[in-house]
Automatic annotation (TrEMBL):
Protein name: Copper-binding protein MbnP-like domain-containing protein
Keywords of this entry: Signal
Segments forming domain Copper-binding protein MbnP-like: 33-233
Coiled-coil annotated residue ranges, if any: none
Record lineage: Bacteria, Pseudomonadati, Bacteroidota, Flavobacteriia, Flavobacteriales
Domain of life: Bacteria
Pfam families for this protein: MbnP
N-terminal signal peptide: 1-24
Entry annotated with the keyword Endoplasmic reticulum: no
Length: 266
């Protein structure tokens, strides 16, 4: 009887010890590591294929997407203990580009070791940084210009560029569409997103986690706010949405199009 009791006490003691060690993992790590953010574009439940894939909206419009680019900025990582690490703004500008392998994965360096459970980022360049001018964005102005992510007709960035052709019950010939978000008039149209990680991203000096995010592009015009391209087909020349009442609605949609699918701790 005593032996059984001693065994039970030993098991309980070992369990408490292991639990304590598990909870202390994040406190015992030190140094800096790296973390990779991977953006994987999709349309609804399907992986995105440029130019050929027909993507059907709830308004029965069929989109063939030829270009997807968006600016990721202002990355903030949250640890399991609730503390945060703000990635330096001077390094925190990236252009996601479906057509380029370099535009899908972005490496964050000098990240304090720890167990991370959330990531927050902006879509676009925040107003405070824009008002600092070139000094506030280092060489990102030139990078954005080379990538076609600057307005040609006004000063400022394109936060998102979404282009292709569409057809609908009323537009039977493939017709261009072009959606560009950014500062228009008094609307700045910058938005931030916070997403939870399904498993912890374990940043260590010897481990570089890869956070795999899915970007559901259907949300741009077919999210909370439903935008009909057919209604924006000006004189049959194409649906060009770069301002007006639809752009703030699209910005609201954009904030809901990201989720973390999984985390690789390799």
């Amino acid at each position: 009887m005593k032996n059984t009791l001693y065994r039970a006490l030993a098991i309980v003691t070992l369990s408490i010890s292991l639990f304590s060690c598990s909870n202390d993992d994040d406190n015992n790590v030190s140094g800096n590591g790296k973390l990779i953010l991977e953006f994987d574009n999709a349309y609804g439940a399907n992986d995105l294929i440029l130019n050929t894939q027909g993507n059907v909206t709830s308004n029965n419009e069929v989109l063939k997407i030829s270009l997807v680019k968006y600016i990721i900025s202002n990355v903030v990582l949250t640890k399991a203990d609730g503390s945060t690490f703000t990635y330096p703004k001077s390094k925190s500008y990236f252009i996601a580009d479906e057509s380029s392998a370099a535009g899908r994965e972005f490496e964050l360096t000098d990240v304090p070791a720890g167990d991370y459970v959330k990531v927050k980022f902006g879509i676009g360049v925040d107003k405070a940084q824009w008002e600092l001018g070139a000094a506030g964005q280092d060489d990102f102005l030139a990078q954005a210009d080379a990538a076609g992510m600057m307005w040609t007709w006004a000063a400022g960035y394109k936060f998102l560029a979404f282009e292709g052709t569409f057809t609908s019950p009323t537009v039977t010939t493939a017709t261009p569409f072009m959606i560009h978000t950014g500062k228009t008039g008094t609307d700045y149209n910058y938005t931030e997103v916070t997403v939870d990680m399904p498993t912890k991203a374990l940043v260590r000096t010897t481990i570089t986690p890869e956070v795999h995010l899915i970007t559901d592009l259907s949300k741009i015009i077919d999210g909370k706010n439903k935008i009909k391209l057919s209604d924006n087909n000006t004189n049959g020349m194409g649906a060009m949405i770069m301002g007006g009442t639809n752009l703030p609605l699209i910005t609201e949609n954009i904030s809901a199009m990201f989720r973390v699918d999984h985390v690789h701790n390799d």
